[in-house]
Design a protein that fits this description.
Radius of gyration: 25 Å
Distance between the termini: 28 Å
Number of strands: 23
Largest sheet: 11 strands, mixed
Strand order of the largest sheet: 3-7-8-14-11-10-9-22-23-21-20
Length: 489
RNA sequence: CGGGACGUAGCGCAGUCCGGUAGCGCACCUGAAUGGGGUUCAGGGGGUCGCGGGUUCAAAUCCCGCCGUCCCGACCA
């Protein structure tokens, strides 16, 4: 660990604070390869929890996992014009194999639409083969110019769902459904509130008809795109000749969707919930929910506390067996590390609950329970500890979402705002601004040049203001939509 | 690719201006005491000073070239 005891406050420099937390909480590390990231066991444990929760949601909505190749023939990408144009600048290309120059270069997948549709073309013949609902967990490579741990690395882990449907409306419904599932996950599991909505053309996925996105607000008031869901229309179906015979016997192109979320969400978790003591992990995603720290002086006390600690672990497991899942509890039995040092370490790593157990407690058949989010300490009886732990974890999960939502609302502007005021705001503390947009790409670009802010989404109905804005933020002409403007990662 | 800063032990840095035996803090190892919010003491290991060339009796230090990292732009989940 670095020598500084305290983390840099994020008020001074949020980026430096973020890097410190990610490195010191042992979520990730820099790799010998520029722009690539090593995800350490602590960070990967969170990713595994995310994967499991999402995978269950995908399965519950009829999706199945599959796996497609890492390498994509260059010609595949060129079949969809917008797609290749969108991704060309950030492709990693393999030109040699087996010591020889390849006849056709292979692209390391930046996303798998092309290779998957080439297979869909073989697999789909009849309307009875539809809908085809697949998902894959994999890594992808995008050669970014500037990288940042979790948020933008050359290689990252993600999940990409790909579906094919008989009609436009079914595909649209699927794209919307998956957006809803992402929202449920991000709010319910990550305690990270999001605004959902439609992306404008400038931020649309290369080759999509429509792109929907989820935007979360980080603690520096910048937006983080937390996931996307695309209605691809028939663009890829036409490029890869994915056709089916309909009930009426006609040959038709399928309508498809794709959607994904990545390890970027771990970065979002840090920037949503972290504080000056390090990481705070919402209980549902914490690899360890409760850590027991024994306190002792003598060797005799030490063995007593460890014994009591082990009994506690067992009784907590038994308690949880009456409920779904099993409590993820760790007894920190390390000798030679003082309790105080252990407290700081587990707080830095964001473990939701700490249970302190010492001779004085044991004599009174109690312990001290400490919540990571509020650092609130309170004594708890060992007889009812299971209930207290469950209760605290549930409350903490709820409180973290409430806290994040309140912070977001406090930094959102819904009142009409002049362009000058808007520029000042974006130049200063930033935030989410809900304001009108005339629908022209020119205004969007001009605002980006002036302020670095962009339209994150055209928010879905429930996020729109009670009084719809009437004029465009930039040009003042009649607004065709309400837009969420913000600076973004 | 443009503008700026930096590269010395695992991490963070001093030393560079003004050339003369490679330093500090943390981490690590050993031992003892300590233990309810980041323990203390003692001892110890660890370095081609980013790489290459030049100047010099002598280079971490001066000169030239290259490489790399970070920050600010262009690119982006």
């Amino acid at each position: 660990m670095a020598d500084e005891k305290k983390l840099t406050t994020r008020a001074e420099d949020f980026s430096a604070w973020y890097n410190e937390v990610v490195l010191r909480a042992e979520l990730a590390d820099y790799s010998p390869v520029r722009g690539c990231m090593v995800i350490r066991p602590n960070g990967y444990g969170i990713w595994e929890r995310m994967q499991r929760a999402l995978d269950d949601m995908f399965k519950a909505t009829g999706h199945q996992n599959a796996y497609f190749p890492l390498f994509i023939p260059e010609s595949f990408l060129q079949k969809e014009k917008d797609h290749v144009e969108g991704f060309a600048p950030q492709l990693a290309v393999v030109t040699h194999g087996g010591g020889k120059k390849l006849d056709e270069p292979l692209i390391v997948r930046p996303t798998s639409e092309t290779i998957i549709y080439s297979m869909f073309a073989k697999w789909i013949q009849s309307h009875r083969d539809l809908p085809m609902l697949v998902n894959q967990w994999c890594n992808v490579v995008r050669w970014e110019m500037r990288t940042r741990l979790f948020l933008r690395t050359l290689e990252f882990l993600w999940q990409e769902g790909h579906t094919a449907h008989a009609t436009h409306d079914e595909a649209e419904e699927e794209a919307r459904q998956m957006l809803g599932i992402y929202r449920d996950f991000q709010e319910g599991w990550m305690a990270m509130p999001v605004v959902t909505g439609l992306k404008t053309d400038s931020e649309k996925f290369a080759g999509a008809l429509r792109t929907y996105g989820l935007e979360a607000m980080m603690q520096d008031n910048k937006a983080l795109q937390a996931g996307t869901s695309h209605n691809l229309g028939q663009n890829f179906a036409k490029a890869f000749d994915v056709k089916f015979q309909s009930e009426s016997g006609a040959s038709e192109y399928v309508w498809s969707t794709s959607w994904g979320v990545s390890t970027r969400m771990i970065g979002g978790l840090v920037m949503t919930h972290g504080d000056d003591n390090g990481m705070r992990i919402p209980p549902l995603l914490a690899p360890i929910e409760l850590v027991i720290v024994p306190i002792y002086k003598t060797e005799e006390e030490r063995s007593q506390m460890l014994e009591a600690g082990k009994r506690l672990v067992t009784s907590l497991h038994e308690w949880e067996r009456r409920r779904p899942g099993q409590l993820r509890v760790h007894l920190d039995a390390r000798d030679g590390v003082k309790p105080g040092a252990k407290y700081y370490e587990w707080e830095l790593k964001g473990i939701p609950l700490r249970l302190e157990l010492g001779p004085r407690d044991l004599a009174k058949n109690q312990c001290v329970l400490v919540r990571r989010d509020s650092r609130e300490k309170k004594p708890a009886s060992l007889d009812t500890i299971g209930e207290d732990v469950s209760e605290a974890l549930i409350r903490m999960q709820e409180d973290m979402l409430i806290e994040a939502r309140e912070r977001r609302e406090a930094n959102s502007v819904r009142e009409p705002i002049s362009y000058d005021k808007f520029r000042q705001l974006m130049d200063g503390k930033g935030g989410f601004v809900y304001a009108g947009w005339c629908g022209s790409a020119e205004c969007e670009t001009a605002v980006k040049e002036d302020t670095k802010a962009t339209i994150r989404v055209l928010p879905d109905e429930e996020f729109r203001s009670a009084d719809a804005p009437t004029h465009c933020l930039k040009c003042g002409k009649t607004a065709s939509a309400e837009a969420l403007w913000a600076k973004a990662y």
